[in-house]
Every structure is written in structure tokens, then in C-alpha cells.
User: Fold these one by one.
Assistant:
Number 1:
Amino acid sequence: MSSATPSPVPSSAHGHHKRHSILPAVSQSGPKPPVQFSSSCTIADSALLTGPHTIIVSTESVIHPRARLESLGGRVTVGRRCIVHERACLGAADLQGRYHKGSPDKEGRSMGAVTLGDYVTVEVGAQVESGGTVIGEGTTVGIGTRVGAGAVVGKHCTLTANSTVAAGEVIPDYTVIYSNGLRRIDKRGVSDLKNKAQARQIDVLRRMIPSNPGKFQ
Amino acid sequence: MFGNNRLPAFHPGLTQSRIRDTTTGSGLWFPGLRSPPLPSESDPANDQLPLPITQEDLYDTPMAPFNPYTYIRCPCSELNPYTKRTPDVTAQGLSRAAQDDDDHTFDPRAARSNYSLYPLEYLSFCEDCHQIRCPRCVAEEIVCYYCPNCLFEVPSSNIRSEGSRCTRSCFQCPICTGPLAVNHVETPPDPNQLLSPDHASSSHSGSYILSCSYCNWSSTEIGIKFDKPNSIHMQLAKLRNGGETRLTAKERKERRKEQASQGAGGGSSTGQGEEDLDTLLDMETQFANLKSFYQNQLSDANGTGKVGGDPSAALGNLGFDAPASLSRIMSLYTGSSSLHDKKSKSRPGTMREALAPSEGLQLASLDESSAITALQDFESTTGLDAYSSTASTTQLQSQAPYLGASPLHGLTRFTSSLRPIPYLLRTKRSKRCPQCRHIISKPESKVTTTRFRIRLIAGNYIPTITIKQLIIPGLTPPPMPNLPPDTIEPLKPAQFVLTFKNPIFESVRVTLATPATTPGRFPAKVTILCPQFEIDSNTDVWEEALKDNNATSSSSQSQNLSSSTGPEGSGPGGRKRAGTLRPGTAGGASLAGEELGPEVGKVWERGRNWTSIVIEVIPASLVQTAKRDGRGPIKEDEDVLEIPMFVRIEWEAEAPEDEIMPGLSSAKGGNKDGGKEKRELAYWCVLGLGRVARTL
């Protein structure tokens, strides 16, 4: 139960030429978290879900193989039509290895570790630290980006590759973080187009990634 | 040199410290990367001994690992390599670094030598002169011009007429210099506009825009849209920021011709007085107006008669300035005719300056209140954040010259006035030796191939030197604890293994020389244990494999046997092995009990085409010397141990056949080997061994 082999049931498209990855087999270690999956979400078999708190994945979201969702610091909520790519980590520890808990909000409720809005894309290798981190709707967290604990990223932002958001930072809506920490406002007005494109991409991904939500429930 | 993106960034002369070892473990550069002076150094009144020093005291940022390097000095930096010069004659008189006199050694820390030292990968070799050539002394010629974005080769005739930028659809984002892509936008039709009879709107309603995929900038932010997805450069020249159209040079000429043909001849002069003096002219229009105005003035001033009219008009196009010089030159040719002289003198040439914008006059508006209010009320009028809307200096400097801008006014510093940057064209260049004009490197003229037709690099002619610290488990004393890695302890002997690898197909004899102490503020004592040795030729790998199978480690007879039967002999003479011995073999006086250690006069190890020797260094103490000599704290990279070394290589090469007199070479040669020419090459190089620890 804890050590799963990394070979999901191949779909008809693969045939007998399936190439196995040279990376070591991922194994599900640690406590199995309580989950709330929507019926239409896609969770790959080799995704890694750990932690004592709940992990929520909403309608039509896609979790790629080898993505990590860690609820060691609190609850992890993935919104609707989100895509979490390989090796991305939601609820990661910070650079010193600590899992932040996050201060409770005004009503006294716990903020949870990581909250993703709708239509969010978390690219390959991105690390979203736990501790009340909020990623707004439509935001793209770029490849290798690190979002600090407790940061609040606005809607429809673009964090380009390898950028950093400091802990606790508040990023306004429609911000583009590029180059060495430079910021500018995105004035293209293409949010609707991006959402439509994301929906189309999710359609394709749902056919390509074999989903196995039963493994985690 | 061979594709700038392949070699690491090396800028000779950029800083005094060549060792820009700026990579730490995480790959980021920290501004405080160099080691700071010790606390006791900054306070000169403090004469107390420092407390026991740990690594945290010495370096408060993690020290980058030091990679030993070898830099070779190109002989082009010698002032006059053929005559000896005294130091007083040199211009600077600072140091005698550049001279290659036998009395003067090479100082790698002199400011001047920084410009002549290069790693081996940067150097080429001229086969005719048998000399090293560096990027500074080669002469470059351009093979072809191409755009780095679309890889389209631009013929050199176009460069003169259209400039050195791409004239197709290749642009860089003005904000982040990333490549711009042409995107189609579907604008929903405006219902109000559809009803109105004329669709004439100030903003150009096109359906293509340029957008940056990195910083998400698009040309809609400056109000520019295009009709067609190709030849963007041409469409962009006709558009201003904000969407207003602009006339190009050709269109303006056509309009002027139409006006001249339509309007009455006299009507234009009366219309000038009513022209608005404040109309803004852009650069191209102003220049064109001025030029035509002056041409008219010249032709008017020199008479409308046949004799004076035609030649002066023709000469006016050539650009002769004042009518006085024109008449002077004309009188040279027609000096005999006094009638003509009187004519030209009587008309002094009344020329006036431009009086109106149509003639090229542009008044500077001294009232800058509009520009000031635009700056002050920017946030309230546009609703944008003023700081992020201000263009940075780099963004302004990377802009291409725009002929539609008005030079005196209209140059704002806002990002809304930035324009997409056409890509600068790049060149493929061939290099020639400056003395014998032999081609050293020549790339293919086809843009997409990266091969070279001719490529003579120094790495194929000069032995490569690699450096490694020698640590023998039983013999080398253990280092001090808490010592940073790759540092050398002062006042203790340290040994380094230098491996010389021979690239050519002849065996070479190498002679090394180095001053007994290194130049600079902290002299170290250097001893080369084996200054003269041979390196075998670079033969096939199979030769060595055959040799290992046939022979034991110390017998030389089988080596000769295998070399003669091998497919590629090292030369008719075979290998010369005079004066070199392996460690531990009988034949050299080896002291009892020291057979494992390096011995004087013997090579450390040898292989198929390489030889290793040992050098020993005793660095000076940094801290105590710095306190005593009063020259201030230890500067950046002054603690690096650098050894200048003089390398002389001798080898025998095939003598070139003399085609004119075929019998001459054999008569000249007279060697037993028959037609072999002795060649030698000598150069200075600098070995960077490591940093000296600041413990003493």
C-alpha cells in the first residue's frame, strides 16, 4: 500500500513501446491524507499526497504524475480547472525545511496551507510553500518558481520561470514578475481567452493522464 | 571567438582580478562574494594579535571553490619583439611586464599584462609564422551578415542602404528585450462605428499585434496594430505610437511632386507667411525639408543662366557648401574668360536660412509647461502608476533610432513612447594573421551551418596544462583543520602536479623556467622539480593498447618494436627518450624510503601523449606581510598564488618541399633523418594554483 510501482495501466495509445523513466520509482510514504476529490478531477497514479490534513481537489482539475501535495502545514485546496504539473509541490517546506502553519484569518479560522483559485497553473518544479499561501484565480506559477509562505498572489498574474515571491508578500492582480524580480502590470486583457485555453488543455490532459483517485481515497 | 555563446564570459582587462569565480553552490552571485579584510586590518591602531581564527571569521560569505587555471600570454603584447628595449622607453614606465628581455620576468599582476593573458581556448595559431595569435591581434573580415532571429542572410549592399538591423518582422520587446511574436487579435466590431458612414478613425484598425511571451507586453500598449502579419518593419515605419500614421520619405516626395505640379508657382511663396511656425517636425521630415531648401538656395544663388545654372546644380548635388567656394572652383576651370569671372563675382550669392517648418525650421519651445504637467499629472490623467510607466535607462538606450521622433520635443521617458526594437544583424567573421595574412579561421558562408572551412586553434599545437594538488597519503602532512577547501597554507611547502598533454603528432621536448620567487606583494618560492622533459607524440589509442599488451612497465625494447609495427609511427626517427625516467625505476638516485615521493629531475608520470611533473611552492604569509609593509589591507584576489612560467617547446617537423629546386631541401638537410626541420616555440604563461589561506 505504501510502495506503489510507477506503471499505471497503459492506455491503448501507448502500446508495447512504453519507456520507463530513469528516475527511481516514486513511493507513497508518510500518512495517507484525508481527501475530497471531485468526480471529474484527474489524479495521476504516481502523484504524491501526504500529510495529516485534508487535501481538496475540485472540478476538472488535473494533477500530473509525480506532483506533490503536502498537507503537513495545513489543508491544501486546489480550485476548479487547475493544472499542477510534474514535480510541483503544493504545501512545500521553506528553504530551512520548516512547514509553516499560517496565522488564522480575521474570523479565527485557519487559513490552511495552500489555497489555489480556479484556473491556476502550477508549472513543473514550482514550490508553493505552506502557511496560508493563496494563489489567485487564473495565475500561472512558472517553472521552478518558489512562492514563499503566507504570500498572497492576485488574480491572473504571471510568475515567469525561476522567480521568487518572498514570504508574506502581497502581489496585486494582473502582475507579471519577470527577470530578476521586476514587476509590471499585464494589460493585455486576455483573461477570458486564457481560461478557455486552459479548459481545452484540460480536455486533452484528461485523455492522456490515466486517473486513479481511488488509490488515495 | 568561435561562437560567443560557447565559451564562458572572459573579458581581458575588464578587472584587475581575472578570477571572477562568482559561482557559489546555488549558482547565484552575491555582491559580497569576495573575502573581506580581517577586522584587525581595518583598524591600524590595533596592534594586538587576532584571536584564533575560524573559517567563519575569515570569510563571511561562503568561498567559491577555486579552479586552477592556466593563462597564456600572446606575444603580440610585446612592444618590439625584435629589439631589446630599456624600461625608460616604455610609455607607462609602470612595470616592465610586457618586455621579454631575459633579465625581466613577466608579472601577471601588472595592469598591462591583464590584457594579454588568455586561456588556451581563446588562442589560435598561425601555421606560417608558427606563432600564437590572440583575439586582440588577429585581423577580422566579415564573411556574411545575418539576422539572429530569422537567420536570413542579408547581402552587404543592403547594409549600406537600409542599416544594420533586420528589415523583416524580427523585433525585440522594448521592456524585456525578448523576441516578439505576431499574433492575430479578433476585435469585435464596434456597433457605433458600423452605423457611421465613414470608418475613418484616428487609431489604425488592424488585426495583428506584436506580443512578448515573457513579460506579456503587447503593441496595443503603445496603440499600434498591423494589417498584415509580414513585413512588419515597413508597416511600423508608417505608424507612430498611439496609432497615428506617418509619411515615409518616398510618400513625402510624391506629395511634394504633386503639390509642385498642381499648385501655382507663385502661390507657394505667399502661402509661406501664413504657415504655422509651431508645427512639430519629425527628424526625417525636418532633414528632408532642410536639404531641399538648401539645394534650392544653392541653385538660386548661382544664377539661373545656362552656364552658371547647370554645372552649379550638378555640383550642388555633390554637396559643395558655400557659393564662394563654388565660384572659386569654377574660376579654376574657366579662369581665362574674364566675362565669366565678373558674372560670378557680381552675384555674391544671396543665401538665406530657413524661415518656416516647410523649409526645415524647427523652433525650440522654451515653454516646457506642457511637458511638466504631463509629468506631474501623469497618475491622475492616465490612472497608471508613474514609476512603473517610466522607462529605465537600459530600455531607453536599447531603442533603435526612430526617424519619426522629433528631436527637440516629443521625447518622453514613458514606456508608452517605447517602440519595438528591430534585431541588430550579426556577422560571421574570418580571422587573419596580422603579419603573414594567412587565414587562421574561416566559417562557412551558409548561415545555418556552424562548421568552419579553416580552423587553426592553439589547442591543436600547444600542450595543454592541467594542475592538481599532489597529496600522497603517507608523505603529505595533513592540512590545518577548518581550512577552506582549495586553499594553500602559507609558509609550508605544497606540491602540485602539472600534466602536459601533447596535441601534435611529433614528440616534443619541453623546457620550463620560472623566477625563484613569484612577483607581487606576497612572493612565494617556486621550485620546478623537473624543468626539462619530453612528451610523446599524440598517436593512436591502439598503439598504446598494443604497447601495454606486449611490454612490461619498464622495458623499452618492446616499445620500439610496437612503434615500428604500429600503423602510425611517431616519425622516422622513433621516440626520443633521453633524460627522462619513471618514478621508482632504477637508474636515478632514489633516496631510501622516498621512492613514492616526487624526485628532482624525474617526471612524475607519463602516458601515451602526456607527461606529469611536480612543482613545489612555499607561499608567503599574507597577514603578517600585510601588516608590516603598510600597503593597506589585502586587496581582492591578491591572495591568489599565481606563477609566471616560461615554456619552450622544441620539436621536429617535416621540412616543406621546395618546389622550385627539388634537390635543395635534401642538400640543405643533411640530417640522418632526412629532411627534418627543428622548430621551437616559446611563450609565457601564468598558472593559478589556489588561494593562500589567511591563517598566518
Number 2:
Amino acid sequence: MPTTTASAVCTTVGNNILLRLTSGERDVKLKALRELKNQIIGNRTKKLSFLKLGAVPAVAGILSDAVSAVDVADNDENDRIVKDIIVQSAAVLGSFACGFEAGVRAVLDAGADILIQRGCLVEEMPLLKSYMEVVDAGARSLKMIYQSKMAPKYDFLQEENMEFLLSLLNNESENVSGLGASIISHSCKTSLEQKLLFDAGVLKRLTSLLGGSLIQRDASLESIATIFKNNPEVVSQFVGPDTGRTLSCIIEIVKDRFARTRLLASLCLIVIRNASPCYLQDVGIKTKLINNLLELLDDPGRVGDEASFAFSSLIAEKEDMQKLAFEVNGVDKLYNHLQKGSLHPRRFEGILLALADMCSKLECCRSRCLSLQVLKLVVDALAHDSSDVRSAACMCLRSVSRSIKNLSAGSFMNETIVIPLVRLLDDTSTAVQVAALGAISNIVVDFTTRRSTFIRLGGVKLLVQLSKSMDSTIRLNALRALRNLIFLAEDKCKEEIFMELTASLLASLICDPEPSVQEQALALVRNLVDGRINSVEYIFAEDGIILDAVGRQLRIASKAEIEIQGMYVLGNVATGKESHKEAVMDQLLLRAENKAQSCIIKFLQSNDSRLRTAAVWAVLNLTCSSSPGSSGRLVKLHDAGIVSHVKNMVNDPCLDVKLRVKTALEQFNSFDDSLASTSCLQFLTVRAVGELSHVVDPSSKIPCDSISNSCYVYVTDFCVIYSHVANSINSQCL
Amino acid sequence: MPVRVAESSAPSQVSGAHSEESSPPICSLLTVGQAFSGTQNVSNLQKEEAWRVNVRIQGCDLEHGYLCGTMEALNVPMADTPVVTFWEGEIVDAKNYTFYTGKWEATPEDDIRHWTKFPSFAPLLSRVEADGGKSLDLSNYPYIFMRWKEQYFVNVGTDCGLTIAGFYYVCFSCSDGSINGFYYDPNSSPFQKLELKCANEGRSGFSFSSYELQ
């Protein structure tokens, strides 16, 4: 037998209520409002149904009519009904907005927030003002609206707005003062707004509310944190006789019996500490905060979800806090929560990020994670439905893989980890891709021979593809991974990577519009040409486009990091064969436009000691005593003014530079004698060539007929002449 | 280098006097990727013996006074292949570590006895005896002092008959990258010497590569 469905019943009931809302009879209207309120309270499904039936504009209309109908001269009965209608319609609207974004949107679209503010709270309604129920109902509703991100931005810069806000804060009603605090928490974003609020003296009132009811305490804690967040100036102005009391008060509240209050108090202290680290330095307080947050993880609700994020903000980038957290078994506690399984995505994300922060700087934390086999759970999270969880898992992996000890042991370079990570390089979310690239960048720093695992699983193809991305962040991070992958890679591995990358792509990345991409591309090439001597040949592929690109970047770059990498590329190439060294010389001696001297002179004079070091190494490698062409190159470097610059660096303030310069000078000195004779022989050679009827080929032997005994003169670039003279040389010839 | 069975332990951080100025200089020859080769004298009363040794730096964290790498010993009689170990180093920087070891069965007297075998330690001796060298400014000193402790075998099993019980007192010359070291293990012949030079692996000059952990 067909029966009416549940939703059909709802619709019938709903239509009935809405019909009665339009009644001209105030009693009927009031009753309908109460029924509607009871229907939707805590019931998302019903809220949605009534939303679709147009309940919100209808109730907003009722509220507006009721506010207009307020008449101070009216009798008590009418007055009471109008008041009740205002209270109930405000409550209904507030309920629609409570934790229900579609409801918030509908309420804002209907202009109900303004209606409530004017109708329930504004001073001009003396009659209503005496009815605390109306004021309270309005405040409660507005507070629910202001808990949503979609709530309108409150303009603190308007004087009347600030006055109204202060009147809310100073109101005795916890709902009204709580509303004032909520407005601050929601809308105060900029440091200017923080300063305005601070200067308006809201902190005094907020501090007094810390001793109020639960609602006032919680709202006040959130507002105080908002005013101080990332604003050391405001925090420093907080210094005064009141400071100690406020801080002590908040520290006490950290032990409150309500979990949410404990969380808010902790967050407040964290914000103060992060803005101005001179506060809250006591180890006792730090440990208390850490322990409090770790305990809050046990809360099954939203407080537990958020506790790990608060924990992260407490310890992020702070080694001392991470150490304290480690000492109270922070890693184990976080792991225990991870093990529970079926975690809400927000909680899962938070715990993974907390672990990532724990392992960001301390090897003891990473070791503990690895011994607990945390990675197993982290790797599972790489395939989670939520992109935030996937991202967080990558960040956790990235932190743990900073362990050089474990990288050396090849702990991460296995299929269990590499396969799901490589898969994320193709993720729909850019944030996940970037996070995966971060983890991969570390994992590929492998000192075993397991890089091939990564290559075999398609990792290189994807990295190279990502290095061509339109998104510069992706390009940059892909290059970082490739650079690390090539570090100390075996020949076969390098070959495979280079074939995928190609010389033209590398050359174009060296000239990328983004300086940080240029830097990584150069660092990649630096690693590419290191290792076995035949690796240097890569830079000469496709007619030397990579080397040309390096030289070009060095001549135009202005960022030290780029110059350092570029110089190391040239320095590395200069450890190769003679032809390699000569190619480096060509690049160094090429002038940039409008520049009178080689770029290397600029680098030798840089304020950055790393750049000075790199430049001196290049000179050292070019003039290496074991190379036959070195003295000739030395002459050229000397003529270009480079040698004298190096000589001037003999007392460089950086020890490393000073020691390299010392070695360079020793090298130069070993050529000094031959330099002197070279100059002399150069002159003589020119004369000799002029005298002789033969055309001189620079590398040929020249038999000198008029020499009484055999004399073979080898001429190399007119710089170095090796002569073998059996007897005295005929002066006519020479 | 391996001597006899014992347990290995990881270097731990010792909090000492903090001084921004007195950390060792960053030396380009003591960076990741750099290779060194030479010998370790493993002679004892019975016989003279030396192993060829190659070392490569794999990790370097100067802020924490940490270094690590591998050591490969060739022509080891009881092994069929070269034996590779992974070691971790403590850099004596007066911030993270002092000249006093404080573990691995090395007494302060053992420490002084070993450090004084390095000529470059002589100017520092009196200060070290006074306070472990905490007040020393090593930032412009052209030698870096370290302890290297092998952590595990990379390519052979622990049943190979070799052990990594002891550690090395090491002196690195920033000038030419040469390394001298003395192996310390209470259960083995004293002062086994490690002598290494910076290797340029067939190149004419020195080549440098790098990685950056994210």
C-alpha cells in the first residue's frame, strides 16, 4: 500500500508552518516561529529543507515588520508579543546560521544580520533595550553568524563601529559581550586593526572577561589571541603592571576543566610567545603547554582535532620546544593517536603535521619515528582521499627523510615509499604535488645504488615533465629533486637522466625567468659535470649550449646564489681536460656588454665569501700545476687583471678564501720563473717567426736552416715555447 | 676501522658553552661529496699491516657540529671485498662538542693523550686542560678537530669477524684537506694511525657538487 514518504511529511509540515508565518495574527505567527525553531535546532537536514522552502527571507521579513511595529506608547500585551516575535525570529535566524554555511549565506542574503543588529542591539530602541531577552537573542544570533567565515567584515576603522563594539564589550550580558569578542575574533585581520583595537583599550575589558562566565572566558581568549597574533609591537606595548596578571590568569586557565577553554588558553599563550619570544620562557610553562596540548589530543571532538594544530604552532621552527616535546614522549603520543585509525581527516592532517614539526630539526625524533614504524602509517596516508592529508603525509615524510644517517642507509628508497610518492607527482592538487616534490627531493639523496629504483618507477620522467610546468613553484621544486638525484649519481644513472632532460631544456632552465629556478638549474649542472671526468662532456652537448647559457647567466646575474652555482659549474669543468679548461677560459674572458672586465673580478670582490671561494677555486683549477696549458692560461688571467685581484685577497677575512688564495699564489709562483722565460721567449719567437721564411703553424716544428745545430722550436699559442738546442743558436736565426 | 666485537653507539650532543664566534670555519674541502684516500696503519706486535682507506663525506650540519660519511677499507685480510662502514662525526666547536669525549670509554687523559699527537693541537693544549676548550675561539684556526665513530657496516654482516668498537680522534687541515687520525679502542693496539689526503679522483683540480635537503 503506497504511503507518504518521510520527506513528503516534512514538506507538508514545513509548508504548514510557513503558511502560518504569513498569518496576520501575531499569536499564530509567534507559534509558527517557535515550531520552526524547534524543528531546525541541531538538525541540518531540516534546516536545508526549510531553507529550500524560503523560510529565511520569510522570517527576516517578520523580524523587520516586528522591529518597525515597536511602539513605546503601546500597551503591555502588544509590546510583549512584538518582543517575543523579535526574540523568536532572531533565534530562528541564528539557528539557521549555526554551523551551517548555506544557512549563513541565506541569512546574509536576506540582510538579516543588519536587521538583528539594528533591531535588537541599537541604542535607539530604548524600549527593546530594557528587554534583555531581545538583546540576548540578537547577540546570540549574531554571534553564530560571526562564527562563520562568510560573515561580513566588521569595519573597525569607522568610529561609530568602534563605539558600538565597545558598548557590546562593556555590556553585562555574556551573550552581548561575547558577541563583541566574536566580532574581534572574526574580523580583526590586519596589524592596523590590531593596533586600533589595542589603542581603544579593548584589552582591559577582555582581560576582565577572563574572570567571567565560560562563554565570556572563551570569547575573550580568542579575541586576545587575535589582537596579538604576529604583532610584536602590540605585544610589547602590552608590557605594564597589568601584563603579569593577565599572563598569570591565562596560564591558570590552561588548567581549566573545560577542554575547549584549555585549548583556547594555550592558543592565546602560543600567540603571545610567538609574537614576542621574550615572554613565557620558563621551562615549566613551556612543558605545561606541551603536555596540555598532547592531552587535549584525547578529546574526541573538534578540540582534539585542533589540538595538534596548536601543538604545531607551539613547536614549529623551535628546536628547544621540539626537544622538550621529545622528552615528554611527544613522538610516541602522536603515534599512538595515529594508530587509532579511521581518523577524521582534519585530525589526521593535524597529527601528521605535528609529527612533521617534531622531526623537522631533531635526529632523535626522526629515529624514534623510524623505530616506531610511523612511516608505515604515513605511507598509507599518501593515498588518502583528502588532499590536505596527502599533503601532510608528504611533509611528514620530508621531515623524517632529513635524516642523513638513514638516507645513507637507503632507508627510504624502496618501492613501498617511492611508488605512492611518485604517484602524487600527478596529483590533481598543486599543493600535494609540491609537498610530494619536497619529500622526493630528500629521498633521492641516496648513497647506495638504489637511485635506479626511482628511475625505473618513472620518477625521472615525471620530474622532467614537472620542470616544464607553467607554475614556477612546481618547476623549482622539480629541479631541486633532479639536482639532488644527480648528486654523486653513477654514470648510467646520469646518462638516463640527461637523456630525459636534454641539453636544450637545461639551457632554457638556466635562463628561466625565475632566479631561483636558474639557481637550481645551475646547481644541477654543477652536479652533472662532477664525478668521473667524462661527465664534463655533458656541458658540451648540442654545440655547448649549456656552457654558453652558464656563461651568459654569469655575465648578467646579480643574485649571489646564482653566481655561486655558476662559478662552481665552471670550476668543475675546469678540472677536466685541456680543451675543457680552455672552454672555461673563453667563457670567463668574454666580456658582458658595457663591462670593461671579466665577471670573475666582480665575484672575487663580492661581499659574499662563498662566491669569493667559488671564484678562487675556478682560478686554482685553471692554473693547476699538473696541466700543461696552465702557465699559458695564467698569462691570460694575468693580462685580464684577474691574477692581481687574487693576489690582493691574501688577507681575506674569510679563512677558507684566505687558504685558497694562499694555494693559488703558491701555484702562481711555481710558474713565475717560466713566466719570465716565457715572456722572453715570446718576444724571441716573434722575432724568429719574422726572420724565417716559413709560415709558422703554432703547433708545428720549425726547422731553422740557419741554425748551426739542430734546433726545433715548438710554438704553442705563442705563450709557451719549448726549445731543444743541441749547440749554440745562430744569432741570425734568432 | 674494525677491530673486535663490541657495541656501537651513536654520538650524542653535549651541551657546552655557546659561542657564535668560535665555530669552525666552513672549509670547502670538508663538504659533502668530498673524497679522501690514504691508509690506516693496523700494525700490532705480531705484524705490520696497513689498509688502504677511502672516505667520502655524505652529510654535514655545522650548526649541530655533525658530519657523516663512509669509510672503505681495502685489502682487509679477513674480507673478500672492501669493507664499507658508515660513520658519524662530532666536530669540536666549543658549542656542540668539546675536546673531552665523555663517553666511549675515553677518559679526559685519553683525550689529551690523543689530541697532543697532532702538532696543530699544541697551541691549544693549555686552554683545553683548563676547561675542555670551551672558551677557545676556533673560528680562524686552520685545523678542524673531530671524533669519528663508525655506526654500522654497509656491505658486510656483523658476523664478518670485524668490529667497530672504537672511534677516531681526527685532525683535518683546512689548508690542503689532509686528514690525520688515531683510532682509539681500549681493547686494541693503541694509536693506529689514519692518514688521508683529499682526492681529486682523476681530475686536474678540485670539483664540488652539492645537495640541499628540503
